Amino acid sequence: MDGEDGNFLSDILLNGEDGTVAGLDDMNFGFTQDTHTHDEVQGSRNTKGAKRTKNFHWKEDEVVCSGWLNVSKDPINGANQSRSTFWGRVHAYFEKHKKTTAERTESSIMHRWLTIQFQVNKFCSAYEAILRRNQSGLTIEDKINEAKKLYVELDKDKKTFGLLHCWTILKEEDKWKAKMIELAELEKEKQAIKKKQKVSRPREEEATNNDQVVEVDAEETVPRKRLEGIKKAKENLRRGGGEACMEALDKMMAKKEVLDMEKEKAKEERFMATLELEKAALELEKKRVANEEKKAEAKLLKEEKEIMLADMSSLNPIQREWLETMQKKIVERQREN
């Protein structure tokens, strides 16, 4: 992110005029690679005399992510709160649950979250790209490793992804998925503005050249029209943020409804598949029981046949009496069947 974008970001986060937050949280804009920094600065906004602290430990990153989720998902205070209140609550959560002795300011936690948000969002895009390839034989670990390689390819500085612990916490959270949709929409708007400016510049140059051909002195008498600067374009976009936020929210809710329908459909398909498996298992059990009964019946018939054909000449009176009794029972059973 260039210096101009950095100032714009700080103005939005620290010097908001209305002081309120609408939606999930206060960061309704995209970020670039320059938000990736591991050194945090404590002190006033004036960098003169600021004290540079140690890098964030992975245990601190986990608490920052949990704090953002906890405050965002609060059903009572999750939305419509001031920027200072939101990050004050995140900072309080961090201080309560941190597992290190490092002292972090509210500002340092906020900027650390921006770094985490940017990198995890980019890794999520890489991971989804790997999933869309639908390669057979890959384990979850293989897919994560492939996403890490793709992340490095997409990064302009070829840096590796080192926030897998944060991705693990955020990836299945609905608040994070909604934030990814917001960031994607804002990125589209940003690209549209850039594309519009690129299209406008050649036309401006062509018009200037035509003026020079028709009248040589035109450049001295007619002031050249300047294109709208990036800073001014961002200022205009921020002023019209109410309608843009409502439009982004409508798009987000529409996509959420589609996702909910897809989840419900997938759930129903899984239920039907489970039901079919249970039916198949029941049929197999019935067949097994029938086979067992047939085996038992065959064994019984074999034993009865041996009893009916037994030679009584070598038996004593007691054995002969038992054998005759068994033969009578066999005859009675066969008559009943």
Terminal residue distance: 91 Å
Secondary structure tally: strands: 2
Gyration radius over CA: 37 Å
Note the run of SSEs as H and E. HEEHHHHHHHHHH
What spatial order of strands do you see in the largest sheet? Answer: 1-2
Strand content: under 5%
How can the largest sheet be summarized? 2 strands, antiparallel
Shape: elongated
**What is the typical, i.e. mean, pLDDT?**
76
Unreliable stretches covering 5 or more consecutive residues: 1-49, 207-225
Structure report:
The chain has 337 residues and is mainly alpha-helical. It is built from 11 helices and 2 strands. It has helices spanning 3-14, 58-72, 83-97, 106-133, 140-154, 164-170, 174-214, 218-221, 230-239, 241-308, 317-336, and strands spanning 41-42, 51-52. The chain is elongated, with a radius of gyration of 37 Å.
Write the layout of secondary structure elements.
Elements: H1 3-14, E1 41-42, E2 51-52, H2 58-72, H3 83-97, H4 106-133, H5 140-154, H6 164-170, H7 174-214, H8 218-221, H9 230-239, H10 241-308, H11 317-336
Antiparallel strand pairs: 1-2
Helix pairs in contact: 2-3, 2-4, 2-6, 3-4, 4-5, 4-6, 7-10
Based on the model shown, name its key terms:
disordered N terminus, two-stranded antiparallel ribbon, mainly alpha, 337 residues, 1% strand
Summarize the structure.
Helices cover 70% and strands 1% of the residues. It contains 11 helices and 2 strands, in the order αββαααααααααα.
